[in-house]
Amino acid sequence: MEVVDIDHVALRVTDIDESLRFYRGALGLEVRDRDRFENGETPFVAVVTGGRHLHLVPTDDEVDVGGEHVCLLARSSEEDTWDEAEALADEIRDAGYEVENGEPHGRYGAYGYDPAVYVRDPDGRRVELKLH
């Protein structure tokens, strides 16, 4: 066996509608499987980032996000992505979501060192938005 990629990551969420407002509304991710979720065919609603899915799995249990985070890669159309990262942070704040103090910062990831912004989803989960 050879592991070649990530298919999906499942995230437990306490309010599916509020989570969709963040992931679809604020971040612009495409929603899949909403009808199948509402019909009881799947226990999640998926949002799509590139070819990968985040499965938003509703739970009545408390969600302890601890130190975990998910990093979403955003393609930049600019040569100087720092200005774009600043604008992204302002856009997320204006949408009513928390942006961590001092953001953006440069961070290393799979594609090297790029500007990134740490924000919080409705459950308090850290979401890194990395421009590349």
Question: Which key features would you list for this structure?
Answer:
132 residues; alpha/beta; 2,3-Dihydroxybiphenyl 1,2-Dioxygenase, domain 1; 2 domains; four-stranded mixed β-sheet; 3 helices
What does this structure look like?
The protein is an alpha/beta fold. The chain has two domains: 1-59, 2,3-Dihydroxybiphenyl 1,2-Dioxygenase, domain 1; 69-132, 2,3-Dihydroxybiphenyl 1,2-Dioxygenase, domain 1. Helices cover 23% and strands 36% of the residues. It is built from three helices and eight strands, in the order βαβαβββαβββ. Strands 1-4-3-2 form a four-stranded mixed beta sheet. The N and C termini lie far apart (31 Å).
In short:
It holds the Pfam family Glyoxalase. The chain contains three helices and eight strands. It has helices at 16-26, 34-38, 81-94, and strands at residues 8-13, 30-32, 45-49, 52-58, 69-74, 105-109, 112-120, 126-131.
Number of strands: 8
Q: Kindly, what is the distance between the CA atoms of the first and last residues, rounded to a whole number of angstroms?
A: 31 Å
Please tell me the overall pLDDT: 92
Which structural class do the helices and strands define? Answer: alpha/beta
What is the domain total for the residues? 2
What is the number of helices?
3
The H-and-E topology, N to C, reads as EHEHEEEHEEE
* Strand order across the largest sheet: 1-4-3-2
Pfam families: Glyoxalase
Organism: Halorutilus salinus
Protein name: VOC family protein
Domain VOC: 5-132
